[in-house]
């Protein structure tokens, strides 16, 4: 059995389960008559723990076998998913979502460390990350459609239990594959916890290439995160398209990500990952500018496809860069710091998106996002495009 295929396929099923839960919860909240504030709080609850708790818990990634962390986290996520299926109140629901996100703050970087251990000998680590991204994108594409079908067929509670089942499946695969990533044998136990916590950010931002990569990407994310808010107003109001066209156009972004993750990202050699990150930023900025500059359904579809493809290339490149440049004994903390930085940028961009749309409109916000993404990428050119 190919370990990489088995692990990443299970990740795809788990990603579908997460998408099923998100869509199901949104439908359930809407049926309960929950306010927009509750829905916003749900989105915030999924992002905030990785920013706040991720760096604090990150030293565990470099002190324990990562496979044990992943196994424990998946078991906890399954239990929390069962609780989400039966919690009666909105407050309890938000608490459980926060708990799930807190566990994810550890298991996300842990999985980023575990995937390379499944890559066959002689293959680049980027191949593993690309396959993981491909499977997870497929899961995210399939999940919402499955959620709608299951809610109609078997109801909310049973549908939410499906997510618990996907975590148990991924846990079973991880245990069966017997993947291991033991910690470096260094005396970290005597180091104060706070110093261990700060080691990840120090390594990440102390290396000029990693710092330029993370900061350029995070700054670009602030601008591109506005798309989530702006695209619905741009497509529905400024292009005057119905909901069905809006859904189809949004799907083209996911298809762009899937195409690049499957066909382009695995073929980028290790020494070109910095240039790939730079190219992804330029491509994403260009896609946003095309959409905003000449409003049309066709160009919007093309622009969103480019944005999705660029996102896949950037996602793979940043993980490959951190994996290659961060010392192994602090690699887990470096990944946690990188993921937390990106999620903080996503939160900031989402928060700015509302006021930007109110002031500039959907098209103006996309234009701002394109210009900002290009500028953030070009500022990092000196380090991202330097010869190694």
List the keywords:
388 residues, mainly alpha, single chain, 15 helices
The main pleated sheet reads as: none
**Helix and strand sequence:** HHHHHHHHHHHHHHH
β content, as a range? under 5%
* Net shape: globular
The assigned structural class equals mainly alpha
Helix content: over 70%
Number of separate strands: 0
Unreliable spans:
none
The value of Rg in angstroms is 20 Å
Average pLDDT over all residues = 83
Separate helix tally: 15
Alpha carbon gap, first and last residue: 37 Å
Blueprint of the fold:
Blueprint: H1 3-32, H2 36-52, H3 54-57, H4 66-86, H5 90-114, H6 125-154, H7 156-177, H8 193-206, H9 208-224, H10 226-238, H11 243-264, H12 273-293, H13 297-325, H14 331-379, H15 381-384
Molecular structure report:
The chain has 388 residues and is mainly alpha-helical. It is built from 15 helices and no strands. The protein has helices at 3-32, 36-52, 54-57, 66-86, 90-114, 125-154, 156-177, 193-206, 208-224, 226-238, 243-264, 273-293, 297-325, 331-379, 381-384. Helix 5 (90-114) crosses helix 14, helix 10 crosses helix 11 and helix 12 (273-293) crosses helix 14. The longest helix is centred in the last third of the chain and has 49 residues, at 331-379.
């Amino acid at each position: 059995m190919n370990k990489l295929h088995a692990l990443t396929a299970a990740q795809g099923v788990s990603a579908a389960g997460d998408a099923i839960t998100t869509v199901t919860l949104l439908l359930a909240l809407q049926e309960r008559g929950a306010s927009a504030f509750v829905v916003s709080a749900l989105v915030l609850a999924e992002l905030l723990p990785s920013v706040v708790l991720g760096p604090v818990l990150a030293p565990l990634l470099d002190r324990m076998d990562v496979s044990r962390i992943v196994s424990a986290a998946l078991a906890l996520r399954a239990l929390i998913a069962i609780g989400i299926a039966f919690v009666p109140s909105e407050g309890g629901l938000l608490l459980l979502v926060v708990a799930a996100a807190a566990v994810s703050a550890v298991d996300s970087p842990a999985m980023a460390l575990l995937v390379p251990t499944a890559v066959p000998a002689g293959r680049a680590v980027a191949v593993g990350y690309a396959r993981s991204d491909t499977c997870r994108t497929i899961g995210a594409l399939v999940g919402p459609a499955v959620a709608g079908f299951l809610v109609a067929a078997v109801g909310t509670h049973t549908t939410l239990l499906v997510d618990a089942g996907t975590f148990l499946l991924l846990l079973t695969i991880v245990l069966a594959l017997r993947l291991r990533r033991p910690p470096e044998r260094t005396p970290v136990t005597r180091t104060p916890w706070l110093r261990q916590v700060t080691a990840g950010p120090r390594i990440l931002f102390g290396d000029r290439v990693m710092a330029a990569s993370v900061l350029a990407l995070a700054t670009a994310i602030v601008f591109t995160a506005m798309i989530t808010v702006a695209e619905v107003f741009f497509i529905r109001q400024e292009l005057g398209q119905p909901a069905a066209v809006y859904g189809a156009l949004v799907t083209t972004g996911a298809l762009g990500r899937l195409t690049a993750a499957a066909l382009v990202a695995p073929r980028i050699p290790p020494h070109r990952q910095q240039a790939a990150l730079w190219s992804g930023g330029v491509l994403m900025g260009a896609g946003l500018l095309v959409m905003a500059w000449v409003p049309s359904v066709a160009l919007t579809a093309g622009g969103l496809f480019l944005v999705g493809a660029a996102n896949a290339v950037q996602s793979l490149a940043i993980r490959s860069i951190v994996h290659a440049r961060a010392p192994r004994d602090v690699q887990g903390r470096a990944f946690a710091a990188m993921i937390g930085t990106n999620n903080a940028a996503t939160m900031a961009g989402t928060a700015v998106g509302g006021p930007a749309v109110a002031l500039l409109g959907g098209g103006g916000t996309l234009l701002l996002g394109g210009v900002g993404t290009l500028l953030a990428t070009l500022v990092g050119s000196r380090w991202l495009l330097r010869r190694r």
